[in-house]
Recover the amino acids of this structure.
């Protein structure tokens, strides 16, 4: 690098800049590196600015030369192994793998920001074992994101993680029951850290349920056959998940696979209230959670609810209210409309003697119609009708099939008057036009039921964020709450549905391969923490990069070790660059020394949000 003074006739001043020179095809080619400034600007700082910057150019040249390395290698080198791979079993295969995932540095930064390492050290420091619980938990969480496989397969891939600490497969399985026992404490710790560092608001909680299947035949206490979301016949486990208004997972619970979705909500509400130490909460859920006992439990705890309800299963009075066009407020050029009412209604609750009892409550009922939902409902019904008509008369939609238990029954059709078997029956089919019309009339409508109200116009604000009205069972917020505010609360449910898709696609939480109940709990705990890290990474990058895209880039972020002290980046993209910028990590270098990687890893421990 050299210094170049350049006199400008127009200004009468001398401009200083650095340049490099190299010979190309016998000619010297100069390339400008950077502009320093005008000579007269430095006369007060240095006795001889030109001499100073020439010395600086030499210093920069020496630094650049030290950063350049020359590699020498032989094209005749081979890998050497002690045995032929063809005779080795999967666990004993020797490898020559010089690739390392550096995307883990971003995950490790968030992991340490949440102080998960400190939590595990404090909870396991007195256990007399020859392994580190924190290192194993990192392997399970980071492995779930970077190469989701079974616990054994994840252990085999541990050397591919740049920050790995070697552990045995036996240590991994011995650690699982400990992680399961720490589940509630760790989830509570994570909530405290997210609340402190990201100012989490848990006054509004979203709840939904999904299930995960096991490729086994036998059921046990937890893995039961039930209504699979993926229509699979294998035993499943139900998971209930709470999410905050920012889309971050809060807590979760596991239930036997034959548990109804609606039955999971009450125990999960109690767990959330205990873990979060909130006196009042607003629970948002889909119509699958719409049960009288859930509503009664929410009211008894003086909480709020926003639940959707089926318009097609509504009673005649409610359908009349929905279809009555009076009172609707139109928006978006008629593509959206809504209306509401505050009325007393009846819910069914279970009594102590196992009977049902009707209870009267006051409820805010909001109906909205969307053209987009209307088009979707119409299309789905047309597809279903076409399928039904195509099958009509084939026996697929009659009792004359061999599905399920019907295959054990001898089937025949008899003419009761002639008392003989009909060997060639004829069927007639017709569409129920009246039923079709009634169904079509409700296309595009959604019904939301809530006890959340806002500060009435002209009323003075009170001294707390919310208050409970014992006389009418209403949950009042200390601000106006419009119908659209309630609708927007409900619409936030899409984020929790997306979270379930992430666990099943990106994290591949199912099928799971662990069998013991404590191992199953530890498996889902690692999935929960992995999901939280990805959601936080999404938040830190401004919610501009889809989680699936981030996961794909993190998995491709590989370094190749060229020699003992030098690594080359085999993959980088704009997503990795954005993640590095958000977390203040230099992830876009082409080459790294071992010292630079050590510095990067040390930086992940110092990156604490305030």
């Amino acid at each position: 690098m050299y210094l170049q003074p350049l006199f400008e006739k127009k200004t009468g001043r001398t401009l200083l800049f650095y340049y490099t020179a190299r010979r190309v095809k016998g000619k010297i080619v100069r390339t400008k590196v950077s502009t320093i400034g005008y000579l007269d600007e430095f006369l007060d700082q240095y006795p001889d600015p030109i001499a100073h910057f020439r010395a600086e150019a030499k210093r920069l040249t020496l630094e650049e030369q030290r950063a350049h390395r020359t590699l020498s290698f032989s094209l005749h080198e081979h890998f050497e192994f002690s045995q032929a791979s063809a005779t080795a079993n999967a666990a004993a295969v020797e490898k020559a793998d010089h690739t390392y995932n550096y995307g883990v540095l971003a995950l490790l930064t968030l992991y340490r920001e949440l102080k998960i390492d400190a939590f595990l050290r404090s909870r396991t420091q007195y256990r007399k074992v020859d392994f580190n619980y924190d290192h194993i938990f990192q392997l399970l969480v980071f492995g779930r994101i970077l190469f989701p496989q079974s616990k054994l397969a994840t252990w085999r891939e541990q050397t591919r993680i740049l920050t790995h600490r070697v552990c045995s497969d036996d240590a991994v399985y011995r650690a699982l029951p400990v992680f399961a026992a720490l589940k509630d404490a760790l989830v509570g710790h994570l909530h405290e850290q997210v609340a402190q560092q990201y100012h989490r608001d848990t006054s509004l909680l979203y709840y939904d349920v999904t299930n995960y299947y096991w490729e086994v035949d036998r059921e046990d206490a937890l893995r039961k056959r039930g209504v699979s979301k993926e229509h699979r016949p294998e035993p499943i486990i139900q998971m209930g998940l709470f999410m905050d208004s920012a889309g971050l997972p809060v807590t979760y619970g596991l239930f036997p696979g034959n548990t109804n979705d609606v039955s999971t909500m009450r125990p999960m509400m109690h767990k959330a209230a205990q873990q979060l130490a909130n006196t009042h909460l607003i629970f948002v859920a889909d119509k699958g959670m719409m049960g009288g006992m859930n509503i009664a439990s929410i009211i008894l705890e003086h909480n709020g609810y926003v639940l959707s309800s089926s318009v097609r299963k509504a009673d005649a009075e409610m359908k009349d209210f929905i279809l009555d066009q009076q009172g609707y407020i139109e928006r978006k050029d008629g593509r959206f409309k809504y209306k509401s009412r505050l009325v007393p209604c009846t819910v069914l609750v279970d009594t102590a003697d196992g009977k049902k009892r009707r209870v009267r409550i006051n409820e805010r009922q909001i109906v909205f119609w969307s053209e987009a939902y209307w088009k979707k409902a119409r299309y789905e019904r047309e597809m279903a009708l076409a399928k039904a008509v195509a099958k009509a008369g084939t026996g697929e939609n009659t009792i004359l099939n061999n599905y399920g238990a019907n295959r054990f029954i001898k089937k025949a059709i008899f003419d009761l008057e002639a008392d003989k078997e009909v060997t060639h029956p004829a069927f007639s089919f017709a569409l129920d036009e009246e039923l079709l019309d009634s169904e079509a009339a409700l296309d595009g409508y959604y019904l939301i039921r809530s006890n959340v109200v806002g500060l009435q116009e002209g009323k003075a604000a009170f001294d707390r964020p919310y208050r409970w009205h014992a006389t009418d069972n209403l949950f009042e917020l200390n601000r106006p709450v419009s119908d659209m505010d309630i609708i927007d609360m409900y619409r936030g449910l899409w984020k929790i549905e997306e979270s379930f898709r992430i666990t099943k696609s990106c994290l591949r939480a199912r099928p799971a391969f662990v069998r013991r109940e404590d191992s199953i709990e530890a498996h889902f705990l690692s999935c929960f923490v992995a999901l939280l890290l990805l959601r936080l990474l999404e938040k830190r990058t401004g919610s501009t990069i889809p989680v699936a895209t981030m996961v794909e880039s993190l998995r491709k972020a590989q370094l190749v070790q060229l020699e003992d002290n030098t690594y080359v980046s085999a993959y980088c993209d704009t997503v990795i660059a954005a993640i590095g910028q958000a977390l203040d990590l230099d992830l876009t270098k082409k080459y790294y020394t071992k010292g630079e990687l050590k510095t990067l890893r040390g930086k992940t421990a110092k990156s604490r949000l305030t």
